[in-house]
Amino acid sequence: MRGFFVGRFQPFHLGHRTFVEDIAADVDEIVIGIGSAQTSHTADNPFTAGERISMIHRSVTGLATTTFVVPIEDLHRNSVWVSHVTATVPPFDVAYSNNPLVRRLFEEAGFEVRSVELYQREAYSGTEVRRRMLAGEPWRHLVPDPVATVVDETNGVERLERVSDQFDE
Amino acid sequence: MRGFFVGRFQPFHLGHRTFVEDIAADVDEIVIGIGSAQTSHTADNPFTAGERISMIHRSVTGLATTTFVVPIEDLHRNSVWVSHVTATVPPFDVAYSNNPLVRRLFEEAGFEVRSVELYQREAYSGTEVRRRMLAGEPWRHLVPDPVATVVDETNGVERLERVSDQFDE
Amino acid sequence: MRGFFVGRFQPFHLGHRTFVEDIAADVDEIVIGIGSAQTSHTADNPFTAGERISMIHRSVTGLATTTFVVPIEDLHRNSVWVSHVTATVPPFDVAYSNNPLVRRLFEEAGFEVRSVELYQREAYSGTEVRRRMLAGEPWRHLVPDPVATVVDETNGVERLERVSDQFDE
Amino acid sequence: MRGFFVGRFQPFHLGHRTFVEDIAADVDEIVIGIGSAQTSHTADNPFTAGERISMIHRSVTGLATTTFVVPIEDLHRNSVWVSHVTATVPPFDVAYSNNPLVRRLFEEAGFEVRSVELYQREAYSGTEVRRRMLAGEPWRHLVPDPVATVVDETNGVERLERVSDQFDE
Amino acid sequence: MRGFFVGRFQPFHLGHRTFVEDIAADVDEIVIGIGSAQTSHTADNPFTAGERISMIHRSVTGLATTTFVVPIEDLHRNSVWVSHVTATVPPFDVAYSNNPLVRRLFEEAGFEVRSVELYQREAYSGTEVRRRMLAGEPWRHLVPDPVATVVDETNGVERLERVSDQFDE
Amino acid sequence: MRGFFVGRFQPFHLGHRTFVEDIAADVDEIVIGIGSAQTSHTADNPFTAGERISMIHRSVTGLATTTFVVPIEDLHRNSVWVSHVTATVPPFDVAYSNNPLVRRLFEEAGFEVRSVELYQREAYSGTEVRRRMLAGEPWRHLVPDPVATVVDETNGVERLERVSDQFDE
C-alpha cells in the first residue's frame, strides 16, 4: 500500500519527520508531495523546490520505507487540485493530512484520508521555525540535522531576513 | 435591449435576486456573468462555477425575461477585463453594477453603466451569508429557496467550515 | 437525468443540432459545454465564446429539454480536464461524445460515456463549414438558421477570411 | 556601462527621478524596468504600463544619458525573475536597487548590485503619493510635472478613488 | 499624432526599417511594439525581447521622430489583444500594419488602421533572413548594420542553428 | 559530483537507461528531470508525470548511484528555462544532454554540458516506441521491463490509440 503526504515544508521540520515515520508504520511506500513548488524567496516560502527536495531526501534516507519526493506546482484552482496531484505523482491508496482543506478536497474526490497524531504541534511548525530564524532565536533543534545543513548551504537565514524586509518604493 | 450583470454570487442571495428583477424591468434579456469562476473551496469563494450556475438558474426560472448565465474566469488583468467579458458572453447594451471597479472599467471602455437601488444592502451580502453559515446562525431566509437546496446538496456549509479552518503546517 | 455534450462549435452546425436532439430523447436536461472558449479570431476557431453561446442558444430554444450552455476555457492539461469540466458546469450523469480523447478522459475518470449515431458526418463538420466559407461555396444549409444570422451579424465570413490570411512579416 | 533600475512606479515620483539622476552619474545608459507591468486599476497599482511609460519617458527626456523604459510582467516565480528580466531588457552591467528582495535575487544570480542614497524617503514614496491623492491632500509637488500631466489626462485621481472603494457584493 | 506598429522582429530587417520611415513621415511619434516578447531560442523566434529592443533602438536612433520600443507578451487570446496592447504602450491614434489579423483586431476594436507600401516584400522578411542564416547564405545586406552587430554579439547565427536542430529523444 | 539529465520519457526506454548508466559512471548522484511534466494523453505525450516517475524509479533502482526523479513543468519561455530547472531540482554540477536546444540553454547560462555516446539511436527513441505501439508492432524489447509493466497497468497502448485518433467535430 502506498500513502501520500503533502506539505509546503518551509522548511521540513521534526514534526513533518515524525509524521512521515508514523505513516511509514502504516504503508509500504510513501509519496511526499512538495506543495507550492513554484514559490520561493518570500517570507512564508523562503526555499525553492530543489532545496526542499534536498532537505527531505537527506532527512528520510534512514527510513526503511521507499519514499518518493515530488514537487507539485500550484494551479490556483482548488477544484482540479486532486486531479493535478494524482497526475503528478505515482498512484497512492490513502492520503494523510491534518490540513482541513487538503482533507476536504481528497474526500470530495472519493479518496480515503487519514490523520496523524500531531507531535508537539505548537513547537513544530514552519511558521515557528521561520519566526525563530528571523528573531535570531534557536531553531536547529526543531529540524532534522540535514535540514539545518541545507539551510546553511543556501544562506537560508540571511535570505529569509532579506526577503522578509518590507520595502516601500 | 440586453443588460449585463456580474457578481461572484458566493452564494446568490435575495439581494442579487432583487437586483435581477429590477434589471428585468428595464431590458428584454439579461446576461448574468459569474465572476472569479475558477475559484472555489475557499473561505470567500466556497462554491464552484457549476454550483453557482445551478443556484442562479433555479432562482431565475420564474422570470419572464430570457436569462443567460455565464461563468467568467479571472485573467488577473483589469485592463483587459472588459474585452474578456464581451468575448465570453453574448453582446449586451448596458452594464448594471454598483461595484465601483466594475463600473469604472466599463466606463473607461465606453459602455453605458447603470446602478440599481440596493435592497437592504447590509443584510443581503455574500459576506453576511457566509458569516452566518460559519457561525451557525440562520441564513436560509437570505437566499432564494433553490439556493438553499444547492447548498444542502453539496454539503456547502460543512465545506465552508472546512475550507475556512486555518491550518499552520 | 442530465447529459453533457462538449464541442468547439466553430460554428454550431446541423450535425451538432441533431446530436443535441438525440441526447434530448435520452435525458431530462442537457449541458452543452463550449470547448476552447478562450480561442477566437483564428482560422480553426473564428468565433468567440459569446458568439457561440448566441448561436447555440437560438438554435436549441425550440427543444422541450432544459439546456445549459457553458463556455469552458482550456487549461492545456488533459489530466485535469474532467475535473475542470465538472467544476465549471452543473452536475451531469452521463457524457455524450464521439471524440476519442474526450471519451477516454471521461472513462478514465469513471464516467459513463455514450456515443451518438452521426448524421452525415462528412457534410456536417466545422472544418467543412469553414472550408466552404473560405472558398465562397454554399454553407448556410449546413447550419441552423440562427447560426447563419449570428455569422452575418459578426461579419463572420469576412473575419474568417482575414484571420486565415497567411502573413510573413 | 549600462545600469538597470526597476520599480513599479505607481506613480513615478521625484524620489525615483533623483534615483535615476544619481545612476546617470555612474553609467552611460540606463534601463528602467517597470515592474508588475500587467497590473492596473487597483488601489496599490492604479496606472497601466503604458501610462507609466508616458510618465517616465516625459520625466527623463532632459537627461543626457540614453534611457530605455521597458515594462516587465510578473511571472509570480521569484526563482526565475532575474532570467526573465535579463531576457526582456537590453543587457546591463550593474543593477541599482534599495529593495531587499530585488537585491537578493540579483546577488544570488551573481550580479553586481549597488544602492543609492535615498532622497527624503518618507515623503517620496508611491504609497504616500497615493494616500495623498485619496485624502485630497497636495501631491503634485512630489512628482515631476509631466507625471501630474499624465495623471490628469487619465483622470488618475478619480480612477484611484473608484478602484479603492471597497465593495461587498 | 502618434502611430503604432507591431511585429515580432526576428530579426528587425530593412523592410521593417523602411516601414518605420514611412510611418515617420505621417506622425509625430511612433510606438514600436515587439510582439511575442516572451518567445526566444526557437527556430522561428531566435532572439529575446531584450535583444530585439537593442536591434531596433540602434536602428532607429537616426530618425527625427520620437520612438518608443515596447515588448508585448502574448496572452494567447485574440479577443483581448487590442486591450492588452493599449494598456501596455503609450496611447496612439492610428495603427499601421499589413498583417491581416492585426488589422482585423484593431478594426473590430474601432481603431483607424493604415497599411504601408511594402518594400521588396519577398527579399525583406524575417523568414528569409533566418533561412539565409541557417543556409550559410548572405543575410547582412537585408538588415540595418546595428542589427548585424547585435546578432554577432549574441552569437545569433550559431544559436539559430542550434535551436533549429531537430532532436528525437 | 552530481549530474543532471532531462527528457520527456514518453516512455522511458533502453536508450535512456543506457544514457543513465553512462552518466552513473561519471558522477556520484544523478538528477533525472521529467520535462513537459504537465502534458499527458496526447499522441506525442501519452503518459502522466506520475506514470513516468513510476517507470523511471522502477528502472533505475538497480543502480548504485543515488537518483532523484523530478517532474518539471513547461513554462513556455526558453529564456527562463535553466533558472526554472535549477530552482526545481537539487543542485547539480554538470548537465548531460544530446538535445541541441537543452545544450544551448545550459551553455548560455554558463553550465558545463556533456554529451553521451548514443546507443542505437534509431531503434531507441520515444517516437519509434510510440509508432510501434500504434502499429501493433513489438515494442517491449525497447524498454526496461518495469516500463512495460507500467504501460500495461495504465492500459497505455489503448490510451495511446485513443488519444491519437483524429477527430473532426
How would you explain this protein's 3D organization?
The structure is a homohexamer of 169-residue chains. The first copy, chain A, is α/β, with parallel strands linked by helices. Helix content of chain A is 40%, strand content 14%. The first copy, chain A, contains 7 helices and 5 strands; from the N terminus they run βαβαβαβαβααα. At the E-F interface, α7 of E face α4 of F. Chains A, B, C, D, E, F: Residues 4-132 form the Cytidyltransferase-like domain. Chains A, B, C, D, E, F: Its EC number is 2.7.7.1.
Per-chain topology:
Six copies of one chain form a homohexamer.
Chain A (H helix, E strand, L loop, with lengths): L1 E6 L6 H11 L4 E6 L14 H12 L5 E6 L9 H8 L5 E3 L3 H9 L3 E3 L11 H10 L9 H9 L2 H8 L6
List keywords for this structure.
Rossmann fold, 5-stranded parallel beta sheet, homohexamer, 7 helices, alpha/beta, 169 residues
Briefly summarize what is shown.
6 copies of one chain form a homohexamer. Chain A has helices at residues 14-24, 49-60, 81-88, 100-108, 126-135, 145-153, 156-163, and strands at residues 2-7, 29-34, 66-71, 94-96, 112-114.
- The percentage of residues in β strands of chain A lies in 5-15%
Q: What would you say the CATH architecture of chain A is?
A: 3-Layer(aba) Sandwich
- What do we call the CATH topology of chain A? Rossmann fold
Helix content of chain A: 25-40%
Give a count of the beta strands of chain A, DSSP E runs of length 2 or more.
Answer: 5
| Rg of Cα set of chain A | 16 Å
Oligomer: homohexamer
Helix count of chain A, per DSSP?
7
Q: Unreliable segments of chain A (pLDDT under 50, ≥5 consecutive)?
A: none
